[in-house]
Amino acid sequence: MTPRSDDELMAAYTAGDSAAFGELFTRYAPLLKAMLMRRLRSSSQAEDLVQQTFLQVHRARLDFFPGAKVRPWLFTICFNLLRSQLRRDGRSPFSDVETVGRVEANQLHLQELREFRQLLDDLPTPQRQVLELHWFDGLSFAEIAEQLGASVSAVKVRAHRGYNLLRARLKEDS
Amino acid sequence: MLNPNCQNFRARLQSEPDTDLESHVDNCEACQTWLDASLLGSSAESEGLQRLEATLSQQGALRGRLMSVPTALRARVLALVMLVLVTAQLMFAARADLGVYPMGRLALELGAHGLVLLLLVTILLRPAFRPDWPLTLTLRAAGLAVLVILGIALTNPAHALHAASLAGRGPDFGSHAAACLAYGTISGMSFVVLAALLDRGAPVGGTPRWGLHLLLTGLGIATSSLVLVLHCPIVHMDHLLVGHVLTVGPIALACGVLLRVLSASRAAPR
Predict the structure, then answer these.
(1) At what angle do helices A70-89 and A102-121 cross, to 10 degrees?
(2) Structure confidence at residue A27 as a pLDDT band (50, 70, 90)
(3) B67 pLDDT above the threshold of 80
(4) Total beta-carbon pairs less than 8 A apart between chain A and chain B
(5) Is the Cβ of B258 closer than 8 Å to some Cβ of chain A?
(6) pLDDT band at residue B18, thresholds of 50, 70 and 90?
(7) Distance from CA of B212 to the nearest CA of A (A)
(8) Do residues B77 and B198 touch, judged by C-beta distance below 8 A?
(9) Phi, psi at residue B207, to the nearest 5°?
(10) Mean pLDDT of B71-75
(11) Rounded to whole angstroms, how far apart are CA atoms A2 and B28?
């Protein structure tokens, strides 16, 4: 089975294809978990928040605007839940978010994204290119192959390497 | 069965770009399938997905469907139900003194209820991709609902021009107050139950349980008070304080019970 792009998965999912939800989960759950572990105390807390994120994604799937980017939408839901968790724990440097308001809250989101962006930038160019086109532009591997003038297999090999490196670095950081 | 080339491919996959490697996977169906599977996720993700699917199946088809209704539609459903409640009151159970009740004051009271309800519903329906509002906002909104109902009770009686408005005193005090208490609680809770079913279980004000409890109680109080303003003609303070304001207690209790019932199927698995 050829992996589908995020857009294809979300369109299939909102049309009732539950397998597409599984694909989205397996694609993003490890990344979300690794990022959450950098902020939370335990692996189980991070896993719980990943579950909550996808529960909210499932319940809000019909709110998703067709044509919008899946990844930022999904990460925003996750960060909003993380902020609530941090508030509940009362241990975060962002716990004054209630008084400072949304500006501060968005800074947490941006800071996480910046850190993630940095990790992505540190990947070798061929791998970074593939992951960027796949995540940010929502292209399928076949479309990326066409755009880069490479074979689909070559693109998948690069994606595989990129995922592994990213996972390892996120794990090191957490 | 893996041939030596397959083994070679998997061992070298994580090393530097290699055209031999890519041409092998181009021509080997087994390695293509393996690579696709690795891009789709590991066994840890499969376990997480299974737990998630178990939670989704536990919540029941109807509740799952209600929670998944688009936000715009959820807002319309709540607005429609509120409209039905108000219209039904005016058509079948309107206050007996409606003809003599000062219209300016009635408009002010209805407007205050409308604003509080709008604020509470907006907090409740916030989609998860929007940042959660602070708990203080929910506290203020629920507090505003109590202030509105208290304000109506503590201001001077609107008029003394109708016999029904002067009832509920002396020996009739208890029965009239109890009737309003029950009527208001039931009306308020009918709206709260629907609102709770449409809620998606995202944290409210940073807290998963009592933020929602506070929000639903506020909604119940505001709805109950709105219905009683349209229904009950009695205007003296004692009745309003006991029969109308005290609905806060049973509504808060009923909301707690409702959340306890709903939370079992809403909680995420650990």
Answers:
(1) 120
(2) confident
(3) yes
(4) 142
(5) no
(6) low
(7) 13
(8) yes
(9) -115, 140
(10) 95
(11) 14
pLDDT of residue B42: 54
CB B150 within 8 A of CB B221: no
Distance CA A13, CA A22 (A): 9
ipTM above 0.90, yes or no: no
CB contact under 8 A, B13 and A160: yes
Q: How far apart are CA A170 and CA B188, in angstroms?
A: 49
Indicate if the alpha-carbon torsion angle B120, B124, B130, B135 is positive or negative: positive
Cβ pair A73:B129 closer than 8 A: yes
**Record: contact B14-A161, CB cut-off 8 A:** yes
B142 vs B139: CA distance, rounded Å: 5
Task: Report residue B222's pLDDT band, with 50, 70 and 90 as the boundaries.
Answer: very high
Task: Name which of A132, A136, A128, A164 is nearest A68 in CA terms.
Answer: A136
Residue B44, chain A, CB below 8 Å: the answer is yes
The CA-CA-CA angle for residues B100, B101, B104, to 5°, reads 125
DSSP reduced 3-state for B44: helix
Whole-angstrom distance, CA of residue A57 vs CA of residue B202: 11
Q: B40, A76: Cβ pair inside 8 Å? A: no
Residue A18: both structure tokens together: 């539950």
Contacts of A81 in chain B (CB under 8 A): 128, 202-203
Task: Indicate the length of chain B as a whole number.
Answer: 270
pTM of the model: 0.73
Q: Which of A1-15, A40-54, B8-22 has the lowest mean pLDDT?
A: B8-22
State both tokens at B160.
Answer: 């003394």
Q: Please tell me chain A's helix, strand, coil percentages from 3-state DSSP, rounded to the nearest 5.
A: 75, 0, 25
How far away is chain A from the Cα of B141, in angstroms, using its nearest Cα?
Answer: 16
Is B52 an interface residue toward A (CB < 8 Å)? yes
Q: What is the pLDDT of residues B140-161, one digit of tens each?
A: 999 999 999 999 999 988 888 8
Cα atoms found within 13 Å of the Cα of residue B197, Cβ hemisphere only: 15
